[in-house]
Write a structure and sequence with these properties.
Elements (H helix, E strand, L loop, with lengths): L7 H14 L3 H14 L3 H9 L4 H8 L12 E2 L7 E2 L2 E2 L19 H9 L4 H14 L2 H14 L4 H14 L2 H14 L4 H13 L3 H14 L4 H13 L3 H14 L4 H13 L8 H14 L5 H13 L3 H14 L4 H21 L1
Antiparallel strand pairs: 1-2, 2-3
Helix pairs in contact: 1-2, 1-3, 2-3, 6-7, 8-9, 9-10, 10-11, 11-12, 12-13, 12-14, 13-14, 14-15, 14-16, 15-16, 16-17, 17-18
């Protein structure tokens, strides 16, 4: 540090070592201030210093002559309260409301320093956007997000975070628009496409959601969440044929998927369409799902009970459903079905007598 007083790297190296040695907080704060003053990207500086970035990545960064101004490697999507940037928790850490003037149009000295350091870093504007969102100044938050995207229009993660922001405000059309942009930029991104499909479902755009899930499956044929989501959408439409075909398709790719076995068994056990109501197959598949699952699952056992019932084994079905109810005492659906199983068992017993 003495030999290279104008370089942030010795400061960062000292900071990483200091965290391991638990140096006094005042000294660490001074290192943070010094690193931020020297670095092109003060957000990334603090992330590297504090250990917010994995050590192997930090070591690689320390070998570079200067900080990268590309935020993508350190950006993580999440809810507004949990989103991170550059390893720093936005809305917490230094950029907090408590550290700021009472006027929500102002921001704290740390953010002022970031902006003064380089106005052309998308990371700076993203941090400001998150801060303004925290203070409730949504108009300024939108403005800062737009500035970040102006600087990095093809940053899919920025579009994804802007979508999270719009979703939190209940502006779902804009949320969908930003997610579409993220998918356009990264057409092979599974998480971006899954998020878009989920929001489309929530907003009642089932046809578009099905297309997105199908695109995701083309990219990743063994994706269970896409298969389950598609199956559910098809069943809602009473399209039993498509639901069964989707479950069978995935089981050819993932024959060990007990979750999909359970979905298929439930469909065979409950479908009102005689062509897809298959008691024997439902029972065999439901047993296999229960046996191959890693732990006892109330939903799997519930499906097995349903399969036993439609195969005329009402008393065995009741005992099985009791096990499901014990595992899920707060599951209203399972608890309500328990009474139906009791009635079926009593009827079966009276017929025998």
């Amino acid at each position: 540090m003495d030999e290279l007083p104008d370089s942030p790297w010795p400061v960062l190296a000292m900071g990483r070592a200091g965290y391991g040695a638990a140096i006094p907080q005042e000294e660490m704060a001074e290192l943070i201030r010094r690193a931020q003053a020297l670095a092109r990207n003060p957000t990334e500086a603090e992330a590297l210093l504090s250990g917010g970035v994995p050590l192997k990545d930090s070591v690689a960064e320390l070998a570079n002559p200067e900080f990268s101004d590309n935020p993508a490697p350190y950006y993580a999507l999440g809810t507004p309260s949990n989103r991170t940037y550059g390893g720093v928790l936005m809305g917490g850490n230094r950029a907090t409301v408590d550290d700021s003037p009472s006027d929500k149009n102002q921001f704290n000295p740390w953010l002022q320093q970031m902006l003064a350091s380089d106005r052309d870093l998308a990371s700076t504007h993203t941090a400001l956007a998150d801060y303004y969102q925290t203070t409730g100044n949504l108009e300024k938050a939108v403005s800062e997000f737009q500035d970040a995207l102006r600087l990095e229009p093809d940053n899919a993660e920025l579009h994804g975070t802007f979508a999270v922001f719009y979703g939190a405000q209940g502006d779902y059309d804009e949320e969908i628009a930003e997610l579409r942009e993220a998918v356009r930029i990264v057409p092979y991104g599974l998480e971006e496409r899954a998020e878009l499909a989920q929001v489309l479902v929530q907003q009642g755009h089932a046809d578009e959601a099905i297309r997105e899930w199908r695109e995701l499956i083309d990219l990743s044929p063994g994706d269970e969440r896409a298969c389950e989501a598609l199956g559910e959408l098809y069943i809602q439409r009473k399209d039993w044929k498509s639901a069964v075909a989707e479950y069978k398709r995935l089981l050819e790719v993932r024959p060990d998927s007990s979750d999909i076995e359970n979905e298929l068994a439930w469909t065979y056990a409950t479908s009102p369409d005689p062509e897809y109501r298959k008691p024997a197959e439902a029972l065999a598949i439901a047993r296999r799902a229960v046996q191959t699952s890693e732990e006892s699952d109330a939903n799997f056992i519930d499906t097995l009970a349903e399969a036993l019932l439609i195969n005329g084994r009402a008393e065995e079905a009741l005992e099985t459903e009791k096990q499901a109810a014990e595992l899920a005492p707060t599951d209203a659906n399972i608890q309500s079905r328990l009474e139906r199983f009791r009635q079926a068992a009593e009827e079966a017993k009276s017929v025998r007598q």
